[in-house]
Amino acid sequence: MRADTVAAAKKSSRPVVLRSTAEFARHIGLARTTVSRVLNQQPGLRPKTIERVQRALAETGFTPNAHAVHLKGKRTAMIGICMEDLATPPAVRKLAALQRLLRSRGIASLIEVYTPGVGRDVVRHFQSLRVEAVVFIGHFLRDEIEARLTELTRQGTPHLVIDQFGLKGANTVALDRAAGMELVVNHLLDLGHRSFGSLGITKGPPSRIDRQTGIQAALRARGLDPAACIVSVDHLHERSNDFEYGRLLAGSLVGLAERPTAFLGYNDEIAIGALRGFQEAGLRVPRDVSVTGFNNQEICGMTSPALTTVDQSIEDTVATAAEILLGQLGAAPTAKPIVRTIAPALVVRESTGPVRA
Amino acid sequence: MRADTVAAAKKSSRPVVLRSTAEFARHIGLARTTVSRVLNQQPGLRPKTIERVQRALAETGFTPNAHAVHLKGKRTAMIGICMEDLATPPAVRKLAALQRLLRSRGIASLIEVYTPGVGRDVVRHFQSLRVEAVVFIGHFLRDEIEARLTELTRQGTPHLVIDQFGLKGANTVALDRAAGMELVVNHLLDLGHRSFGSLGITKGPPSRIDRQTGIQAALRARGLDPAACIVSVDHLHERSNDFEYGRLLAGSLVGLAERPTAFLGYNDEIAIGALRGFQEAGLRVPRDVSVTGFNNQEICGMTSPALTTVDQSIEDTVATAAEILLGQLGAAPTAKPIVRTIAPALVVRESTGPVRA
DNA sequence: CCTTGCGGCGGACACGTGTCCGCGAGAATC
DNA sequence: GATTCTCGCGGACACGTGTCCGCCGCAAGG
């Protein structure tokens, strides 16, 4: 009987699909329990038997059902990652680095984009899969995200928010964006600039507020009035965070009666778009105007002129995030939320220069 | 008794973690089967009871264990996606689009980076989770990937390869890269160019071979000898696909005795890097040399000069991919592999111009 | 030949769920 | 008040696995 099944399987070029340890064991003529022992490295088996099972495992490609295994109490070794989107390069870089780090620890990543509205379903799905933690990367609607965090905490699932600062009760790792903008503004002040144009930094969500805070702090520290020296036409064009928005803004800023001498970009894309916009209008950077970005993406070194910007230190962020996450996995839930701040660094290139006399 | 547990839970600010339908049912004073019926929308229940369960569901955040559910035979509604890396923007865009499309069909995406060597484990893990299909995005080692596909087929798991063309027995969706390069070369030939410089297209893996095929076809069609009119110094610098490699190449190409008049970029990054490199050397684009990219990333419209490149039509690719995938899910395995080719489009901008007389 | 021990067999249970089915309490109907 | 109907209860089974445990065939040692 057993010999028959083996022979039959070997003859047919398309062997039977094996979907359970029982089927697999029958296929190779052993008991289910014996196979299970090999899979779980239990002692008391002949080396010959172990090797026999393992070869068959490799040949057939059989894999034990993870769902059943987890049901028996083994850890799922999965975490859920909620992304604001997959279109923001720095966020994707964080995702990539985090995924790699967790992978090396044997943890798989379930990745979903958290769209406002269906976000609840996404987190519920993670919960139902009994992930060991949920990570949020990016910026989300405050109320919505806090509701998700409450749900997670109630079910005892650890969480971590990367990038978004100031959420109540949230474990957080975020760049100190205010400090980043302080660096930028101080650099420009040192170059003699006293009037600044906004490239998408006014009003809006926390990621912009943080930047404003930094700008204002830097100006006040030198005795300047933020309201008086910042100009914004951000509202003139439909808001987005891409190149084109920056280009349009530059177009609108060029003709201003009291045109600022330096322009502060919300991110590198907008700044690069503005670079193009200013050049299209016949201005030269940094001779006529200075422009700064934020994030220090690779492209910043390749534009003409190369872009002065703020580096995020993604490695630090992700390393810190992983440390927090791994620390939470086995342990009991922490009472106080863990909050870590990452220090930014100014990268001076060619797009900023002294004010022309 | 039952009233007690409810009251106790309501009193303590940290309610008990509910990890099974049984616990949840006890918590709200109902039978497990009743809760199960609500969850699975079975008839024969009073609206009042249904509402009572659903409110408790929302309040406690309880979620039935997906592993147990799948074990009972319900579909997992998950697919596995293997990425070559998360650093190639067009690949990430495909990932994002595909993930979104599948999400809207109720299918979750498990995403892993397939590093050569540990790739086997990744696919095995997908298999053990009984994903409904496995997708590969990017270019992989031929032998390794074909081994993975064989394993998948043997276990009856549908697959799809996006981007990599010509794998034996593989369901494939890929851009016709050869056709893309033909468009580029024809465009340059029309502008009078007869000598071409390689920016990272010589030798190497399939993604480069495809491009070479297209270039050679275009040249031969006009009676030119590819070997005679293509110059390459690709080997002079350590290979990578980023801006810096392009910049270095340009630096080495500038001083050539018989410097070509047009340069063909493997991708946009290398082309943009070359743009910068040529400009640093004092050349003007496109007056002195023409440069082309590949992929049509957003940045191409913002460089100075804006980059002539080939558009991938990612929407087409992903739509086709989703169509194939969704078609495979319920159905029986197809005998013949499905192969679809996506047509590229030339996008002419400012980085290409007529040869100077 | 009998004893001993090794190593594989196979039955049993639990994990959390969906589903079926018989039961019974309470309400509605006559 | 007796009958019928409604609807929730709770026992049972199966899904695939890990683990425990008693059993037994077989070979080695006395």
Walk me through this protein's architecture.
The structure is a homodimer of 357-residue chains. Chain A is α/β, with parallel strands linked by helices. The first copy, chain A, is built from 14 helices and 12 strands. In chain A, strands 2-1-3-4-5-11 form a 6-stranded parallel beta sheet, with helices on both faces. A 4-stranded parallel beta sheet of chain A has the order 7-6-8-9, sandwiched between helices. In chain A, β8 (262-265), α13 (268-280) and β9 form a beta-alpha-beta unit. In chain A, α6 (89-104) crosses α14. The termini of chain A are far apart. Chains A and B meet through α5, α6, β2, α7 and α12 of A and α5, α6, β2, α7 and α12 of B. Chain A binds a DNA duplex (30 and 30 nucleotides) through α3 and α5.
How does the SSE layout of this entry go?
2 copies of one chain form a homodimer.
Chain A: H1 2-11, H2 21-28, H3 32-39, H4 47-60, H5 66-71, E1 78-83, H6 89-104, E2 108-113, H7 119-128, E3 134-137, H8 142-154, E4 159-162, E5 172-175, H9 177-190, E6 196-199, H10 206-221, H11 226-229, E7 230-232, H12 243-254, E8 262-265, H13 268-280, E9 290-292, E10 309-311, H14 314-330, E11 339-342, E12 345-347
Parallel strand pairs in A: 1-2, 1-3, 3-4, 4-5, 5-11, 6-7, 6-8, 8-9
Antiparallel strand pairs in A: 10-12
The structure holds a DNA duplex (30 and 30 nucleotides).
